[in-house]
Structure formats: structure tokens, C-alpha cells
Specification:
Order of helices and strands: HHHHHHHH
CATH superfamily of the largest domain: RNA polymerase sigma factor, region 2, helix turn helix motif
Strand content: under 5%
Radius of gyration: 17 Å
Number of strands: 0
Distance between the termini: 39 Å
Low-confidence stretches: none
CATH class of the largest domain: Mainly Alpha
Helix content: 55-70%
Number of helices: 8
Length: 182
Amino acid sequence: MQEKFSDNQLVEFINRGEYKYLQLLINRYMPYIIGVASRYNAGGYDTEDFIQEGILAIFSAVKSYAPEKASFKTFVCLCINRAMSSALSRVSGAAKHIPEGLISPIDEIELTDMSSPESIFIAKESYDDLELTIKQELSEFEYQVLCEFLSGKSYAEIADSLNVTAKSVDNALRRIRSKIKK
């Protein structure tokens, strides 16, 4: 099934709420993610962490892809590389390190079975509820920072985009992590 759809078709399906196709896209780009992740090595961040960053970058790429600008393959590979590079600079390039207590590793990414209309509806409803909850918990600034961060931008890029300092972005992301943990 994976080979019969182009990347653009899968992106269209996912953006229409057919999330079962997200796993196909992740599977398609997993060898690339693993290849890039294996090149990174930083204290406190292992290959598995970089793989998770790559998977999140795929979802972010799907949401922000503009077909008129580049092919999806080019765009998603750029997003994956930027996400891992940003993760590396957060871990090793900054003067301050993220305290271990703030890092919550994702052991598994589990996608639910999307073979029935009922499960698709429930998944979409859950996603909408989660998004609404996040919007309610975060300030407008924090929500803007989160959206920019999930699109694969670095702290500096987010700061430039929102006309604030990188420290403000870092503080906002710390508050976001704290709020989302609750």
C-alpha cells in the first residue's frame, strides 16, 4: 500500500484527517531518519532521541508543506535535518543544559488502527481536544512559540520571527514543557 501513493497524495490524505497515512509516510522516511540520527552524538541525547525528533519533523513538515515551493522529499529532509540540528544545539551547543528532570523520553510512538470510520472520527476528536486543551493552557505568546518550534525552527529563528530574544523563546519553551507535563 505504501508504494502506490506519492508523498504529495499521502500529505493530502493526512491533512484531510486521514491519519492512518501518517504511519506510511513515517515508514517511508525512517531509513533516512535513522541515517541522519546515527551521525549525531551528544551527551544526554542518544540516537533514539534524534529519531524521535525526526519523526516529529515529519508531522511538522506535513502540516507546513507548500507544494509550489519544493518537492515534499526535499522539504521533509530539510525539516528532519533542522530538527536534529536544533536538538543537538539545545543539548550540546548551549551554555546551559536542559536539566534531566525536564526531559521526558518518548518510549514508543504508537498510532492507533485507523481502518474504520469510527476510529478515524475518535482520533480526529482526540486530536482536536488535545489542540484545544493546549491552546487554553498556553498564553498566546507561548502558543506562537510552540507552533514555530514544531515547524522545525531554531530558537534564534523563532526569536527573529516573533521579534523577541532567544532567551524569551527558551523561557517560553520551558513554561510550555512544564504546562504540558501537568
